[in-house]
Amino acid sequence: MMELNSTLAPMIELSRTEDGSNKNGAFAKDVADGLSQKQKHLPSRYFYDGKGSQLFQQIMDLPEYYLTRAEFEVLTDNQEAMVQHFAHEGFFHMIDLGAGDALKTKILIRQLTKQQSSFDYVPVDISGDAMKQLTKSLQEEMPEVGVQAVVGEYFKALQWLQQNKSERKVVLFLGSNIGNFEMKESVEFLCSMRSYLGAGDKLLMGVDLRKDPDTILNAYDDAAGITAEFNLNLLHRINRELGGEFDVDQFQHYAMYNPLEGVMRSFLISLKEQDVYIRDTGRTFHFDAWEAIHTENSHKYFIEQVKELGQQCGFKIETVFYDSRRGFADVLFTTE
User: Fold this and answer.
1) CA-to-CA distance for 230 and 158, rounded, in angstroms?
2) Residue ranges of the domains in the chain?
3) How far apart are CA 269 and CA 45, in angstroms?
4) What stretch or stretches form a coiled coil here (predicted)?
5) How confident is the model over 177-204, as pLDDT tens digits?
6) Does pTM top 0.70 for this prediction?
């Protein structure tokens, strides 16, 4: 019987700021770059300030937003099988990319401790505050689990882990976050991740699967308007943090799903011709009436697409865990 690692290691900080924005410099640069393009866009990672995170918590509780419930079902119903795949070769580091509050991951952690598996837990997030809170909650709930939180961007964290943790690794990338990348970017992301992993390491990745287009569309354009508020909060954040002068009431949220491409896209639409000054960029940006700002993609997959995506980067599918409707999957890859 293997002993649990009960050491609480100090938190590693690879990022200077809690929200990953490098104070406001990177935020201002990304906003200026995005709004300068012929087809305007803003990076979706800036959705998640304090207010944005609160709104997203509300979105996850909406009846239309099936994704979180579906993955909870996958993890709950398959936790024993998942843990057996993780733990059968002895000690490993379980690395949770974008851990947040780790509510879903705790399902697996509890099962690992129940089976007395030999592992430690390495949550990774750009929010230092979230990692402090998670470390505290794990100390209180499961003090026997070894935890070392890492604050920083994913690849900085994986590089640090590669240099400092030689043992086997199981990486979690849950929540269908891979769908936020364009297809070329998703290949680049997975190939970069693979470069930090060794032979026999594993990746458990959440993917949202193709389904009724109306079901998908409603999840990103709910009747209560919470998703619209979430998207519009990005303009409020620019006003608050960068000295922007957006009249937010003159923009509206618009969502569309393309079933041919399998891509859900979100936009903010200017309701009139207007100019917006943003102090920290030192620039004024012009919007035509009905001009769109692209804010987010969410790709939906066929399993064969996921298999091909992994193969391009040296991963092969070990097994696939589905929810009861086969509309969401956590795909377990192993390195080739």
Assistant:
1) 30
2) 25-63+213-299, 65-209+301-335
3) 19
4) none
5) 999 998 899 999 999 999 999 999 999 9
6) yes
